[in-house]
Amino acid sequence: MADETKQPGDDVKSVDQPELKQGKTGAGPQTIDLLLDVPLNLSVELGRSKMIVNDLLQLGQGSVIELNKIVGEPLEVMVNEKLIARGEVVTLNDKFAVRLTDIISPSDRLDKLA
Fold first, then answer.
1. End-to-end CA distance of the chain
2. Domain containing 101: what range?
3. Is the confidence at residue 24, as pLDDT, over 70?
4. What predicted TM-score, i.e. pTM, was given to this entire model?
5. Measured distance CA(89)–CA(47) in Å, rounded
6. Cβ-contact 83, 77 below 8 angstroms
């Protein structure tokens, strides 16, 4: 490891640095535009269940899996596996859809990341 301490007679020079100017703070439209095309995975969770491998292997057509949620309980809307909202099942043009009933606040979402 080289000795990098200043020795008498070394030629030490100052570095000229440009003056820093006060810039804009906060996220503006130009900043958010960079993120608008980022793909996200959105999923809606109806419920969960646990089972052992043997029970999983026994599943077949017509099998029923009991979930941990009761009828009428809100569904969880997840973005990249993070809870962002809750909602209820509705139909839209003969397809299932979710009507959002509760949006998780940004501060609550950030708290869960910590």
1. 39
2. 41-113
3. no
4. 0.61
5. 13
6. yes
